[in-house]
Structure formats: C-alpha cells, structure tokens
Design a protein that fits this description.
This protein folds into two domains: 190 residues, Rossmann fold (3-Layer(aba) Sandwich); 145 residues, Rossmann fold (3-Layer(aba) Sandwich), CATH 3.40.50. The radius of gyration is 20 Å and the shape is globular. The strands form two sheets. The chain has a seven-stranded parallel β-sheet with strand order 3-2-1-4-5-6-7, with helices on both faces. A six-stranded parallel β-sheet has the order 10-9-8-11-12-13, with helices on both faces. It is α/β, with parallel strands linked by helices and 384 residues long. It starts with a strand and ends in a 16-residue tail after the last helix. The protein is 45% helix and 15% strand.
Length: 384
C-alpha cells in the first residue's frame, strides 16, 4: 500500500488538487490522506464541498494580519506533526504558495519523497509574482517527482539542472477540474439581471504586488469600460482581502453595469467564466481556466509564468496602467472578429487527463522502486 499525503490550503490549490485526490482515492494500491492548511477558510471549504472531499487533517492556520513568515512557520510545524502520524511514502504539494514550500520543507526534513504538482512554471522575476516565484523554484529543487503541466515547464526544469528522469509532462489538473465542474447543471445566479443581449466581462484582481495604486488603476479602467459600452456588464468577484474590497467599493460602487459580489463557489464561478466574452485578471489559475474554456484574457500583470497562453494567442499581457488596460479592452470589445480569433485557439494547458497520469506515475514509481530511493521517471505526455 502506497501512503500518499496531499497538502494544500488555498482555493486555487484546492481546485487543482481536488480532482487528483479523487483519482488517488480510486486506486486500490494507494492510501490517500489529505491535510488542508486553511489559508482561504471560506473559499477553501466551498471547493471541498463541491468535490465531496473531507480532509483527514485541518491545520486551520489563518489568523488576521499574519505575515508570510507566520504562515510558513505554522505550516512547517503543522505538517511535521501530520507526517509523524501518517508516515507517508510520498508528500504531494501543489504550485507556488508559501504553504506549498513549507510542506515540502517538512517532508524534506524527514527525508520523505516529494511530488510537486504544477512544477516548472517560471517568470524568472523573484518579486513578480511575489512570493510565488521563489516558492515554486525552491519547491522544485526539493522535489523528487516533478509533474510539469507543459513541455515548456519541463524545459525550464531541465535548464536548471534537474534530471530529466524525474520530470513528467502531464497536462494541468485544472483542466480535469473543469471537466468536473462545467458538467454540473447549476443556475446562472449572478448577476441575476443579466440579459441575453448583454455581454459579460469578468474581472478579478488580488495579487499582493498589485495592491495599492496598481489595483486602483485597474478599477478605474474597468469603470471607464462600463461607461463606454451600453451592452456590457462587468462582474467583479471581490477577494476577501480588505485592501482589495475597499478599493473596489470606493471606485466601482454606484456604476450601473458593474456588479461587486463575494467570491462565488467554484461551480458558479466556472459557469460564469464560460458565459464571459472577455476576462481581465491578475490570477495565474484563471489564465489557465479561461484558456481551457476558450475565453480571451487580458493579464493584469507585467509578467506571466504561463507564456504558453501568450504564444497560443488566448492571453495578452497589459500590466496595470489604466490607459493601456482601457484601450486594449476597448479594442477587443469593439472587434468581434478579433475576440473570435482569440477564442478559437487550442487550449495549451492539457487535455483533462492529468490526474490519471499523475496517479499512474505514483503507482509505477512505488511498484518498481523502493521509497526514498532515486526515482526513475519518463515523460508520458507531450503537450500537443
């Protein structure tokens, strides 16, 4: 029996790890345990409920106003205790959060193999996104199995000297999650007054480096767009961060065609995303989700660790300058043919079978290799 401990705690991590946990639970040779760290308490619980997951362990680390240092040390101590209880053969972590790095460190300190889901993403700017860029680079150095979502991610890892026989290109598990969520029939409840003849623009902004003047610039551009197009409704799910919410309330409140809402559950959000004609976001995960649903995205950042979307043509970098955001979005909204071209590109992030591949790899590695020995991996999926 292979004991696998999956550790995650934010809403984006949960969306991408939930289908993998469900796949691991199907395998008779795997004993799957889940530890949630609980940074996004309310939003995390929504995702767990949708996917029908009940965590085995909950660190519940979130405290008001805590620093990155506090988050990291709390996860490190908490996961260490869970490791002593579970005695896992493999610890699975995801992505680039501080809890991802801390959980990987806890496993490393106990010399337990680490599997990194969504390995190899890079912006090569340690402060953009912050602290995610260094979190994922350090986690990759600690990991024994690196599940790269695309061929380009694998190339990043190879260029950094990570042996190719430890890297698998699997596709991104977010596409697997979308196969689950968009097949559920749920009423499009928000905005309730959206008419069939109105277009929906979905706006999300929350990145740490965008707080302050950048996010205010983003919101000013959004208000101008709502005033420029009579047939446009802008839906803005607000992150729970008070700095995000106060800026949105100040700049966007009172505009007839802008709806400020609390974060919807993942089913509702994915259905709203499928209804949108254009997405403006500084989120990494939403770049992938939108691309998988053939939705054009203007990325509200100066860099992206998902250049596959830029190359495919479904993503465009616009940064946080008010005038540039407004002009780029207005140009697309005024050009249905260009929007259609961006919507027609092939999804570069996978085919929806990443979780099956990852589970297969884990079984193969522990069937042919003893735990804590060097893994012998081969690439099984090429991004086509």
């Amino acid at each position: 029996m292979i004991r696998v401990l999956s550790v995650f705690g934010t809403r984006p991590e949960a969306i991408k790890m939930a289908p993998l946990v469900r796949e691991l639970e199907k395998r008779p040779d795997i004993r799957s345990s889940v530890c949630v760290t609980g940074q996004h308490r309310q939003m995390l619980d929504q995702v767990l409920q949708v996917f029908g997951l009940l965590p085995d362990y909950d660190l519940d680390i979130m405290r008001e106003g805590q620093s990155l240092t506090a988050v990291t040390t709390a996860v490190l101590r908490g996961v260490e205790e869970i490791i002593r209880i579970v005695c896992p053969d493999l610890v699975l972590v995801h992505g680039d959060t501080s809890s991802c790095l801390a959980a990987a460190l806890a496993a490393y300190y106990h010399q337990i193999p680490i599997g990194h889901v969504e390995a190899g993403l890079r912006s090569y700017d340690k402060y953009s996104p912050f602290p995610e860029e260094m979190n994922r680079q350090l986690t990759d150095r600690l990991s024994d199995l690196l599940f790269a979502p695309t061929a380009l991610s694998r190339e990043h890892l190879l260029q950094e000297g990570i042996p190719g026989d430890r890297i698998f290109v699997t596709g991104n598990t977010v596409v697997d999650a979308l196969r689950f969520t968009v097949n559920h029939e749920v009423p499009l409840a928000m905005p309730a007054d959206l008419r069939p003849d109105q277009r929906l623009l979905l706006l999300t902004a929350h990145r740490r480096e965008n707080l302050g003047n950048p996010i205010r610039s983003i919101y000013r551009a959004a208000r101008r767009l709502a005033e420029a197009f009579d047939d446009l409704v802008i839906l803005c799910p607000l992150h729970l961060n008070p700095a995000v919410r106060s800026a949105a309330q100040e700049i966007l409140s009172g505009c007839e065609r802008i709806r400020l809402i609390d974060p919807p559950d993942v089913l509702t959000f994915h259905h709203l995303l499928s209804r949108a004609c254009l997405v403006l976001t500084d989120s990494g995960g939403i770049q992938e989700e939108a691309a998988a649903l053939n939705k054009p995205v203007l990325v509200l950042r100066d860099t992206t660790e998902r250049p596959e979307g830029l190359a495919a043509g479904v993503l465009r970098l616009v940064g946080t300058d008010e005038e540039r955001i407004f002009l780029e979005a207005r140009r697309l909204l005024s050009d249905p043919e260009e929007l259609a071209r961006m919507s027609a590109v092939k999804n570069p992030f996978g085919d929806g079978h990443a979780c099956e591949r990852i589970a297969d790899i884990i079984e193969e590695q522990f069937y042919y290799n003893r735990p804590n020995e060097r893994f012998a991996c081969q690439t099984t999926y090429a991004d086509r």
